[in-house]
Amino acid sequence: MNENLGVIAGVRVSHDHATLDDIEAARLGSDADVVASLLDEPGVREAFAVQTCHRVEAYVVADDESTGDRALDAVFGDAPVVGMNHEASLRHLLRVAAGLESVVLGEDQIMGQLRDAFEAARDAGGVGPVLREAVTKALHVGERARNETTINEGVVSLGSAATRLADREAGLAGASALVVGAGEMGALAAKAFDASAAANLVVANRTVTHAEWVLEELETASAAVSLDALSEHVASADVVVTATGSDDPVVTKRTVQGAGETFLVDLGQPRDVAPAVSEVADVSVRDLDDIEAMTEATRDKRADAAREVERIVTEEFERLLAQYKRKRADEVIATMYESAERLKARELDTAFSKLDAEGELNDAQRETVEALADSLVSQILAAPTRSLRDAAEDDDWQTIATALELFDPDLDGSSPLADADPSAWAAAETEDD
Fold this sequence. Notes:
- Pfam families: GlutR_dimer, GlutR_N, Shikimate_DH.
- Helices cover 54% and strands 13% of the residues.
- By secondary structure, it is an alpha/beta fold.
- Strand 8, helix 11 and strand 9 form a beta-alpha-beta unit.
- It is elongated.
- The C terminus is likely disordered.
């Protein structure tokens, strides 16, 4: 098959069908680690992965969907994944970027996560023409969704959702707040606390300098501390939000012993708060599942905006499919013209040899013969070219296969697409039920 053609296959483990434990079990190191593992599988040309608190997703490009599926199965094993074919993968990726698949509908953080995942895949050698176009289109859709609708008004991050949950269940008026972790989500939680009625805020992080950066733009009385003193600061906090990205829990039963009444919201994935913490008296623990339940009300309020975003997704999805179809048709057309050019050159050599044997041709005569040959090729292939482009737009891949047989001038059958299987392209345009 032409090396530029490819079909996308994808898998996802996400909050809409899996538990936090399932998502955590499906996580395979960093996004770059997942991409590297997929690229090691036979037949995989491109690979992309994005892993967030509520999802683990991966996409590959191969000659056909079955090859992609085998590679994904080999890497993800028994994880409770939902498989996606070419069209399903593309539509889902656009929906993710638009915020339609997020726990907090329309949240903005996913855009940065997708960009970071794209950079990681590119650095790992996983991004080629197919996925580059898909992810670029997804990011464009995400920007349109937020610029043209109100999908991201109000609560737009897990960090702000966590503080809202804490305020509703524990109350933030005059509270002492602690954020554990100074990454993007921790920074969002700190900003949300700053906008609340909390009296003071502490940000704990392994690197204190990073915690200090988070506090620079905040107005609430605040301090940056090291994780080494975590137990001390948990004991003096009324509300704690954790978001470290650590592989192991940073808040254990020992951390909260004697802390008194404390409300903890765990945004970590893997989890920051050990399960045994919930057994400690006066300590309440909430996690991402609790936030998902709370944000259902937010979803209802944003239903109208979501419908408009769905329209944008459908519009851009159709454009993306048309782009892929045009490229596939153009690749076949280019192969047809290349074959015709090889045959033309061969026949011109034969003709010039015969004519030169009867008397050497001058440059003008040679140019006239060559122009005649060029004109014949262009006129003969003009109608098939139009038909092939129309066939691609109509998903008529059988016509493309027939055209290759009828118009392939390579009598020895050496055309690069001579043995191509059009069913692979047709499968790429058929979405799973």
